[in-house]
Amino acid sequence: MQQSGVAERLSEAELERLAGEIGDASSFLTDIREAVALRVVGQHKMIDRLLIGLLTGGHVLLEGVPGLAKTLAVRTLADALDVVFRRIQFTPDLLPADLIGTLIWDKGSGDFVPKRGPIFSNLVLADEINRAPAKVQSALLEAMQERQVTIGDTSYELPVPFLVLATQNPIEHEGTYPLPEAQVDRFMFKVRVDYPSREEEREVMRRMTSDRLKPIEAVVRPERILEIRQQIQEIYLDERVENYILDLVLATRDPAAAGLADLKEWVEYGASPRASIYLARASRAHAFMEGRPFVLPEDVQQVARDVLRHRVILTFQAEAEQISPEVVLDRLLETVPVP
């Protein structure tokens, strides 16, 4: 689908208006990227996915071996924003109260009063999220889905904006707990963080002569983030692109109907309806970051793997044959017709 196809549905004046608004609104992204680059070398895809999560309110799960700047990237992003940031180190002995807070006795009032935990922040880094037991994950699940937590008999709204950015190590399983599928599904993205290139690692080596981080000034306020989220919702999503999103998601559930009968033996469960929602949101945000007032199929393709990777559940046979979700998604993106 080309720009001319969009012009058939949007007037030229409307396109110019949206393009101008998006150009003005997206200018702060350059400031954020420059601020993050003061500390983080490379990892552009990870930074872009964190920004899309910020622009859409979608939680992000970062998976990679230690030392790839996952925690540093989140902390640096928080420093570039004028928001309340908390880092929570998940451990096997962590309790729900350590996350959401608890009731404490107040001698003055003669009653129990809530003491709020670190979850009451705009940006929460859940470091090594898969090290915490089920009760902690359950408390976090309520916060991620409902944007609220329950302490005692009372529910408390979380700050706006609220975003969970989590990290996990894929190669270490001792002392870890597999995340419940219901919780994994709440993450918009599962991003695989790769090793830096040789030149990027050379730059990292040269920079790290001191443990001191370079100071970063905040470049955007929370109110501005909320305004931009409203603007992103106005980005035009053509019905043909909507159908493309649905075709991709439905193909994960019934590969044979998409002409991929050989994948049926590998896929146990396909993506949930949240995949369609997050694909649409992430595609709009990607178009916004490209300065476009409309979504192209290329936007969908750019974010599809990170949205679908953790939602395609493979069979035991696929795991035995060492088939990864990447193989399935590559086949789907090659086969499903592009509008």
Write a structural description.
This protein has about 350 residues and is of the alpha/beta class. It is built from 15 helices and 11 strands. It has helices at about 5, 10-25, 25-35, 45-55, 70-80, 95-100, 135-145, 180-185, 200-205, 220-235, 240-255, 275-290, 295-310, 315-320, 325-335, and strands spanning about 60-65, 85-90, 100-105, 110-115, 125, 150, 155, 165-170, 185-190, 265-270, 315. α11 crosses α12. It is globular and about 65 Å long. The model has no long low-confidence stretch (mean pLDDT about 85).
In short:
By secondary structure, this protein is α/β, with parallel strands linked by helices. It has 15 helices and eleven strands. The chain has a five-stranded parallel sheet. Strands 3-4 form a two-stranded antiparallel ribbon. A two-stranded antiparallel sheet has the order 6-7.
Provide the domain count: 2
**Strand line-up in the sheet with most strands:** 2-5-8-1-9
How is the CATH topology of the largest domain named? Rossmann fold
Proportion in β-strands: 15-25%
